[in-house]
Design brief:
single chain; 9 helices; 0% strand; 214 residues; elongated; mainly alpha; 73% helix
Length: 214
């Protein structure tokens, strides 16, 4: 039996990895567009006091920032109450590029997952995905533990990994928007992303377990 399954080893890990990327990018996409998460953070982390602006003003400027980061036709960041330095504008341009890479991964991994699972289902082999998914579930668990234990270090390493410059190190005098985006807010974003990833993988594994191969 084992030797008969060997040809599917690469395929099952490929599909499982696509599922991992799909749920991860879905979590990131959700956090990007779910602005109420920031609205709640204004109260949770005292952003009004840190910036001197009301919640309504902060919500408006955050919406403008997200609009720039998610609209491919908007090539100029303009916020009503926050000025930006050239370094700050460059960093947000890089963030925008990463956002669209994430959107591309979301679409492509979703297609690979859909057609991959359909292919295995036709052969009555979807059960092959259960073991790799169980291994991949460990990733969001370890990351969530890391976030709870030493988020500041992870946050710095994340920026060092995805940005090959120090434009992300904002000076509040030149880029006051950084005061409206406290590190705690990003911690919540990371937790939500990896919680969605964990729940997505567990849910997929449960569906496969209960799937009736026809």
């Amino acid at each position: 039996m084992e030797h008969l399954m060997r040809p599917y080893r690469v395929q099952k890990w490929g599909i499982a990895t696509a599922l991992f990327l799909f749920w991860l990018s879905l979590g990131i996409t959700f956090v990007i567009f779910f602005e109420p998460l920031y609205h709640w953070s204004i109260q949770w982390f005292g952003v009004e006091k840190m910036t001197g602006y009301s919640a309504d003003v902060l919500k408006t400027n955050y919406h403008e920032l997200i609009g720039y980061l998610t609209n491919p036709l908007n090539d100029s960041l303009m916020m009503s109450n926050f000025t930006s330095s050239q370094q700050g504008l460059f960093h947000f341009f890089e963030v925008k590029r990463l956002f669209f890479i994430n959107f591309a991964i979301f679409l492509s991994s979703g297609l690979v997952s859909f057609f991959g699972i359909r292919s295995l289902k036709q052969r009555r082999l979807t059960w092959l995905l259960r073991r790799p998914i169980r291994w991949l579930v460990l990733v969001p668990i370890f990351v969530c533990v890391g976030i709870a234990s030493f988020f500041n270090t992870l946050f710095i390493k994340f920026h060092e990994l995805f940005f090959n410059n120090d434009a992300w190190i904002f000076d509040p005098k030149k880029d006051p928007i950084i005061l409206a985006l406290p590190e705690e807010f990003f911690m919540v974003c990371f937790i939500v992303v990896f919680s969605i990833l964990l729940l997505g993988l567990l849910g997929t594994n449960l569906l496969i377990k209960n799937l009736k191969e026809i």
